[in-house]
Amino acid sequence: MSDRFETHQHDVLIVGGGGAGLRAAIAVCEANPKLSVAVISKVYPMRSHTVSAEGGAAGVIKPGDSLDEHAYDTISGGDWLCDQDAVEAFVKEAPEELLRLEHWGCPWSREPDGHIAVRAFGGMKKMRTWFAADKTGFHMLHTLFQTSLKYDTVIRYDEWFVTKLLVDDGRVQGAVAIELMSGKIQAITANAIILCTGGCGRVFPFTTNANIKNGDGMALAYRAGAPLKDMEFVQYHPTGLPFTGILITEAARSEGGYMLNKDGYRYLQDYNLGKPQPKPVLRSMELGPRDRLSQAFVMEMEKGRTIKGPYGDVVHLDLRHLGEKLISTKLPFVRELCLKYQNIDPIKELIPVRPVVHYMMGGVHTDINGATPLPGLYAAGEVACVSINGANRLGSNSLPELLVFGARVGRAAAEFASKHTTPSAAILAQAMDESRRLRKQLLEKTGGGERIATIRDEMQKAIENGAGIYRTGTSLVETVTKLRELQQRYRNTVLDDRGLTFNTELIAAMELGFMLDAAEAIVQCALHRTESRGAHQRTDFPKRDDEKFLAHSLVYRNADGSSRVEYLPVKITRWPPGERVYGEPSQTKDAQAGR
Amino acid sequence: MTPHEAKGATQYTTYHPRWYRTRVSTYWWLGKWYYLKFVLRELSSIFVAYFVVITLLQIHSLSRGPEAYARFEERMRNPLMIALDAITFLFVLFHTITWFNLAPRAMVVRLGGKRVSEILIAGSNYVAWLVISASVAWFILR
Amino acid sequence: MAETIQLEVTRYSPEHDAAPTFQRFEVPYRKDWVVLDALNYIKDKLDGSLSYRWSCRMGICGSCGMMVNGEPKLTCATFLSFYAPDAVRVEPLRYFPVVRDLVVEMTDFMVKLQKVKPWIIRKEEKSIADGEYLQTPQQLDVYKQFSMCINCMLCYAACPVYGLDPLFTGPAAIALAQRYNIDSRDQGAKERMDILSQHEGIWACTFVGECTEVCPKHVDPAGAIQQYKLTAAKEWFKSLLMPWGAK
User: Fold this and answer.
1) Residue A398 to residues A50, A402, A553: CA-CA distances in angstroms?
2) Rounded distance, CA A88 to CA A69, Å?
C-alpha cells in the first residue's frame, strides 16, 4: 500500500449495486444525463442480495383493488409506525415502477391473455403481488443490471469496499475505499452520496441474509453523524431452513401450506390468527403477518410442542397435500432448495423450519426523498428507513420499495449534486488519515490474537439472546455489556492475511466492525422502547403504548463512541392508530378502520 | 461505459502481469470422455468428406461406361481400401448418430405453444433415416 | 473422534508466488455440508488468509463457482458426501486468470456481457401510462429458460473454445443476447446480429456442448448458440436472395 494517494471525482456516488443502487443510478442518468454517476460495490452488482428475494412485489394494478387498501394494509401491518405520507407516495408509485421494469424486460408471470398476473401474499387483503415465478428478486436485479449497462455515464467500481464517509463543513463530500483486486486505498469524492448497501441480517446467527449483509451503510452513516431510525424492529421470517437459513418463501403458505407442531396440529389457531380453513384465507392462519407467526413459534417452543432437530427447535411446514403438480408448477424453486440443500422432497416429506432473521425495518433515517439529515448523504432500500415499513414490513413490499425510493433518491441526489461543487482540501487530509488508520489498525497490526470468527459468533449469540423475537430489559442490558466487551476485544483482532491482493480477511474484519455498530444501535433502540409493537416484543412491557411511543427511535453516535436515543413523532395523514388484529373476527373491524 | 473505458475504474481492469494463467494443454481433449467424443465427432467430418469423394468417383466411372466402372470396382477391392471404408463407415455412423442426438438442441419446434420434446425431434430424424435407408435398400436389392 | 475429510485447495499469492500450489486441510466431515461450508471452516478456524468469493449460499448469486475435482461447480451446491471419503480438490475456475487463491479475474466476462446489448431495444417506447406490453405465457416460455442465467461462468470454464481463444464471446453472453432476441417485447435482434455474427461470436462455437452440461440453472447456452446460428444462416440466405430487402 503505497503512500501515493489516488482520488476520483464524480457528481453522484452510489454505494451498493443491488436493486436500489441500480435503480438510483438509472434515475440520476435520466434526471440529468450530464452528471457523472459512479456505482461502487463490494461485489459485482448481480451478486447483490436483491437476487435472493423470491416471492414478489406488491403494486395495485387489478380492478377491485385500490391504492388506499394497499396503504391501509401496509400501515396496519406496520402497527401504525409507518409515516403515512411516505406510504401514500409509495403505493401510488409502486405500480408505475413495476410497469417500468416490465418495459425494461423483467419476465413477470402473466395471465393467459398476456396481462401481468398477481398472487396473494401474507398480510395483503387483496391479490396484488407481481411475481416472476419464484425468482422475483433475481429477475428484477438482472433486469436492472442489464438495463443499467446501456447508460454510458454510469461508471462502476466493482469489488471496491467503502471504509469511511468523508464529511467536512457539515456536508458529505466523498468516501474512502479499498480496491480488492489491488489493495489500493483511494478517495472518491462526490457532491452527493447514496447508500444502498442493504440490511444487517448477518448480525444474527440464523438469517436468510447473504454473507455480504453486514450493515455497512448503516455503520458508515452512523459514524458520519447521521442517525439510525427504528433499529429495534427486526423482522423474522417464520419459515427458514435450519443451519443454512435458506428461506422458504411465503408463497409456499399462500398456495396452501400448513404449519404443524410436533403433534401435527395447526398450532397457529391458538394464537388469535383465525380458525383453520381447508383453503388459504388472506391475513388468517398461515397467511398472518410474519412477526405474529414467528412469535407463535417461540410460545410453542416454550410449551415444548416443537420438534428437536440437530440445529435446535423446529416446526414443520407441510406441503404434501398440495400435490406434485401444484408444487412443481407454482413452487419449483422451493422444491429445488429443499432437495439441493436439505435433502428433503416437499412432495413427500415435511420441511423442518424455524424463524430466521429476514429484514431490518430500521435503517438510516431519511425523509420521503431519501435525504438523511446530513447534507449530501442519501439512502434507499433496506439500509434506509423512510419509513414505510413501520414496526413490521409486509411481505412483497420491499422489492417495490427499492424501486420507488431508489428512483426518488436518484432524482433528489441528482438535483443536489448539480448545485454543489468541488470537495474541500480537508477532505483529502481526512482520506489520508483513514488510509493510515487502516494500515496501522489492521494490515500491519501485531500482538492481540483475537480471531474474527470468534468475536462474530459471540456477537451473534449475544444479540439473539438479548434482542431476539422476545426481549426483556434484563436481557438487553446483558447484551449491551457483552457488546461493549466485544468492541474492546475487536481492537485486538489480528489478521492471518497480510497480503494486498484480494484480502478478504481484511474486508471481513471491517465488516465485523460495522456489524458491532449495527448491533449496538439495535440493542440501544430496543432497550429504550418500553412497549411492544410489531416486531419489537418486550415481555416486560407487553402492551403497545401510543401515548409515549407513536414515534420513531433515532439513535445517534456521540463523539466518545457511546450512543443516545431520541424520538420523532410518526406522520399520520388519514389512518388513526387502530388495533392490529388478524384472522376472521377482524375482517369487519379492519374494513371499518379502512373506512 | 465499460470498465475498460471508464476513467475512474481503469486500474483494475488492465491485466495484472502477475495474475496467473494456465496454458491450455494440447491434450485437453483426452481428459474427459465428453471432450474426446467431441474431438472424434469433429474428426469424423474428414471421413464424411472422403465418403462423398468416393461416391462422386463412383458416379463418374459409372457415367463412363461398364469398363470404367469395372476398373473402379477392381480398385475398391484392394484390402487397404476395404479397411479404410470400414473405418469410414464407423465414423459416418458415429457422425450421424451424434448429429441426430444434437439436432433437437438447435431446432426448437413448437406445437400449440408447447415445445416439442427432444426425444420426439431426435426420434423423427431416426425414423426418417430408417425409412430412407430401407427404400434405398429396396431399390438396390429388389 | 468425529469424521474428517481432506481438502486440497489452490493457494496463490501474486505478491509471493510464481505459480499456484496446493495446500491440504483437514476439515470435519458432515453429511449436510457443501464444499463451501468446508472452505468457510478453513477460513474461520484454520487459515484466515484463504481467499474466495461467496455470498448467498443458495445457488442464486453466482459467486462461488470453482473447479471441484476438475469439474466446474457451484461450491454451495456441491455436497462433500458426493466425494467422501476421498479428498476433494478445489481449484479456481479454469481458463480465467487467477488473481489470488480461488479468486479469478472476471472483467473479460463483464465486458462481453455488455457488448451483446442485453437490454430491451425498441423502435418506439411505450409510455408507462399505456400499461404493460402484453406477453402471453407461451411467449414468456419461449425465452424464459435463457433468462435464468446467474452469471456464474461455469460454462466458460467448461468451454475449450474459450480456453483456446479468449476472444470468443462465450456461452453465457450469447445465451443472454438470444434471451432478448426472442423476447416478444424486443426489436433489437438486427443490432445484436451485427455483433454476434462476427468471427468471435457464434461462429467460433464448435458445439462441444459441455457448457449446457455444467449449467446449474439449465439455461442450455449450447442450444441458444445453435439456434442463433440457424437464424443467422437464414438471414444470410435471405439477404443473398433478396439484397433489396435488407435493411
Assistant:
1) 10, 6, 21
2) 10
Burial of B119 (0-12, 13-18, 19+ CB in 10 A): exposed
What architecture (CATH level 2) is domain C4-104?
Roll (3.10)
Angle at A40 between CA A39 and CA A43, to 5 degrees: 115
Amino acid A583: pLDDT: 55
Give pLDDT tens digits for C17-28: 989 999 999 999
Q: Is the pLDDT of residue C241 over 70?
A: yes
Neighbours of B14 (CB within 10 A): 9
Asked if domains C4-104 and C107-245 share a fold, the reply is no
SS3 state at C65? strand
**The domain over range C107-245 is classified in CATH as 1.10.10.10:** no
Q: Which helix (H) or strand (E) holds A119?
A: strand A118-119
User: What does the pLDDT average to over A237-263?
Assistant: 89
Domain locations along chain C: 4-104, 107-245
Optimal mutation site among B105, B110, B117, interface C, most CBs of chain C within 10 A: B105
Q: Which residue of A has its CA nearest to B10?
A: A157
CB contact under 8 A, B28 and C163: yes
Of the two residues A95 and B111, the one the predictor is more confident about is A95
Domain coordinates of chain B in residue numbers? 28-107+114-141
Asked if residue C9 lies in contact with residue C41, where contact means CB atoms within 8 angstroms, the answer is no
pLDDT tens-place string over residues A189-224: 999 999 999 999 999 999 999 999 999 999 999 999
Mutate to test the interface with B, among C98, C107, C182, C220 (most CBs of B within 10 A): C107
Orientation angle between helical segments C221-241 and C189-196, nearest 10 degrees? 100
Lowest mean pLDDT: which of A552-561, B100-109, C201-210? B100-109
> Which cell numbers in the block locate residue A324?
406434485
Say whether B1 and A10 touch across the interface (CB within 8 A): no
User: Residue B8 and residue A567: Cα distance in Å, rounded?
Assistant: 41
Cα C15 to Cα A242: distance, rounded to the nearest angstrom: 40
CATH architecture of the region B28-107+114-141: Up-down Bundle (1.20)
Name the CA dihedral angle for A328, A329, A331, A335, rounded to a multiple of 10 degrees. Answer: 20
ipTM associated with this complex: 0.96
Averaged over A138-162, what is the pLDDT? 96
